[in-house]
Amino acid sequence: MAQLTWHGHATFGLKTDSGHRVIIDPFLDDNPRCDVSVEDIDELDFILCTHGHEDHFADAIPLAKKTGAMLISTYEIVSYAGTQGVQNLHPMHIGGGHRFPFGHAKMTPALHGGQVAGEGAGPYTTMPGGFLLDMDGKRLYHAGDTALIVDMQLLRGRVDVALLPIGDNFTMGPEDAVRAVEFIEPGVVIPMHYGTWEVIDQDPHAFADAVGDRARTVVLEPGATWEF
Ligand code: NI
Ligand code: MN
Q: From the CA of 130, how far away is ligand 2's center (Å)?
């Protein structure tokens, strides 16, 4: 059973049965609801970034440099990280999958902004995405930052655990996230990308009520670990 830890916002840590440690969308030091800092993390094997916005990418380069973890993201983000001295890199892109030691990762479409944040990142933009991760016999979907998109219907019945933004304003809000649950029909849905700032404040328990019996909703507090 893989262990999933929410660190607030869209940041999740994963530890597989085989002991591989993965972090998705690391936003630690400037994330007001995060329970860990870059300084706290010494051992890490893989860093996955859905897109280049500050609140998903800010600590990817510092963590990659500190731990030597492999950065896995779109070609453009990985290319930019290469200009910043990160050497352990794996570029991929939307629709493509690859098998890594922790499991299989495939990038999915997301409808969102393409900026890559960072010093000297001017020429870099990317298509934002999400990740479908097969690990320890389960499939996890991290939607990234996205609007409700009909592409999610392609995932129907194929996802065990869906991590969906509910914050509204920058991404889907709760109503559209419930429609995403209808599209995907996951076993479990975990809300994310809310509560970080006032503009994306949401009540995750109201979301759970709205999801009802369409899926089991697991509401995590930052720092909480859940096994799947
Ligand atoms: Ni974003
Ligand atoms: Mn975001």
A: 12
Ion ligand 2 neighbours, Cβ < 5 Å = 55, 145
In words, the CATH class of domain 3-221 is alpha beta
pLDDT digits (tens, 9 = 90+) for 176-198: 999 999 999 999 999 999 999 99
- pLDDT tens digits, one per residue of 93-151: 999 999 999 999 999 999 999 999 999 998 889 999 999 999 999 999 999 999 999 99
Ligand nearest to the backbone CA of 113: 1
Taking the alpha carbons at both ends of the chain, their separation in whole angstroms is 5
141's tokens: 């979907």
Looking at this protein, which amino acid is placed at residue 228? Answer: F
Q: How far apart are the CA of 91 and the centre of ligand 2, in A?
A: 21
Q: Which residues pair with 121 in a beta bridge?
A: none
User: Following DSSP, what letter does each residue of 20-42 receive, concatenated?
Assistant: -EEEES---TT-TT-S--GGG--
pLDDT of residue 124: 87
Q: Where are the domains of the chain?
A: 3-221
Round to whole Å and give the CA distance between 150 and 171: 15
Neighbouring-strand partners of residue 109: 129
